[in-house]
Design goal:
The protein is an alpha/beta fold and about 400 residues long. It has 18 helices and eleven strands. The strands form three sheets. The chain has a five-stranded parallel beta sheet with strand order 7-6-4-8-9. About 35% of the residues are buried.
Length: about 400
């Protein structure tokens, strides 16, 4: 569970946590940059969250944020793809051929406006060396039926899955592994990832525009996302005629923040230091968000305990009882707090730590007076003490 859902996008939170062996149950204390962007107001949402820090990919984004008024601490850590294991990134034994296409995609709040039929036709006219062609579509584009334009030319259609499933980036790596080339009609995150993974990228095809209907952090209506000097430059120097030139790697590495990748120890320290501010940040959240956060942490902690991962479960329960219990009005999620004290008591009992267990059971009953299981367990401990006497 995360305080901010944006951290779940493309599985970035899981990648960061796995890299440092951090408890997957606990929320990250910082907002992660969710994707590459160049145009004005692209990443403003990251600055509007309740968390105290924003972790960005590159110095360029950090410098852009300095121009905007906010109270966040900005840290550069590089893109999450840098933190995947080298084993997942290694595709040396695969014979690479053909092209994977990443058309400009829609989102929940924005639609793509363009001639999809014409773009699909343009792809069909590529030289034979770029075949076979596979079109990788965003899940929303498939839901909207845009795949029909590409199926008309018998292109293979694939998707990396939904953004919050947790394995989006892993699927991206798997889906690009067997291709020699990558192309798009829009400069986007997929382009930089493809170059980083060793594909020969080229920019090709008619551009689309975006119609923003519900993203409150950008102007409403049609947006020309390519109207930026840097993007225009990339479109020119990354054109198909320069496909075999190595002028892309340096730019991709800079935009992905390769040199800013930090060690496991440094990242762990960053999280521990920022965690101290987390309770205050959660206090500012809407009640429904806090309730959902408490429920998810409680649920995942209980699942971990049932599977025998007591230490992992203990950290989750302690987060609820230590950090959330300090929030003034916790009546609307008290069953998760009392439940956490109860399960901590059971874990203590399994380790023979009876005094600690009794203290937790008393706190459980103090929060939820009618907690029958806690009262029953407490009576059992008292009866066993009497028998020993």
């Amino acid at each position: 569970m995360e305080v901010e859902n944006i951290n779940k996008y493309y599985g970035f939170n899981k990648i960061i946590k796995k890299y440092i062996h951090y408890n997957s149950i606990l929320p990250l204390p910082a907002t992660l940059q969710h994707g590459w962007g160049m145009y004005k107001n692209y990443n403003i949402y990251e600055l509007s969250t309740s968390l105290p820090e924003v972790w960005v990919w590159s110095k360029r984004v950090a410098d852009e944020f300095k121009k905007i008024k906010h109270n966040k601490i900005i840290r550069i850590i590089g893109s999450p793809i840098l933190y995947l294991s080298s084993r997942k990134l290694s595709n040396k034994n695969i014979i690479k051929r053909g092209t994977i296409v990443f058309p400009q995609h829609c989102s929940v709040s924005q639609d793509s406006i363009g001639d999809f039929e014409k773009y699909a036709y343009q792809l069909s006219q590529l030289p034979k060396i770029y075949f076979p062609i596979t079109v990788c579509l965003y899940f929303i584009d498939i839901e909207k039926g845009y795949d029909k334009y590409y199926r008309k030319y018998n292109f293979n259609i694939i998707s990396n899955g939904k953004t919050t499933t947790g394995n989006f980036l892993a699927n991206f790596i798997k889906n690009t592994a067997s291709y020699k080339y990558a192309t798009s009609n829009s400069i986007s995150t997929a382009c930089f990832y493809s170059i980083y993974l060793g594909l020969r990228y080229f920019h090709y095809g008619d551009k689309f525009k975006i119609y923003n209907h519900s993203n409150n952090f950008r102007k409403k209506g049609i947006i020309d996302i390519e109207n930026h000097n840097f993007i225009k430059k990339l479109e020119k120097i990354w054109a198909m005629k320069y496909v075999n030139k190595n002028n892309k790697i340096k730019i991709a590495y800079r935009e992905l923040g390769v040199k800013y990748k930090i060690t496991k120890l440094e990242l762990h320290r960053m999280i521990l230091n920022t965690n101290k501010q987390l309770p205050n940040c959660i206090r500012k959240c809407d009640r429904n968000i806090i309730r959902k956060l408490a429920y998810e942490i409680y649920k995942e902690s209980s699942e971990a305990r049932e599977k025998g991962y007591c230490n992992k479960a203990m950290e989750g329960y302690r987060f609820l009882t230590r950090d959330l219990i300090d929030i003034n009005d916790y009546r609307f999620y008290k069953k998760y707090i009392s439940g956490s004290f109860y399960h901590i008591a059971k874990i203590y009992l399994s380790h023979g730590e009876e005094i600690k267990a009794v203290n937790c059971l008393n706190k459980c009953i103090e929060i939820e007076d009618n907690h029958k299981m806690a009262k029953y367990l407490l009576n059992r401990i008292k009866c066993s003490k009497k028998k020993l006497k």
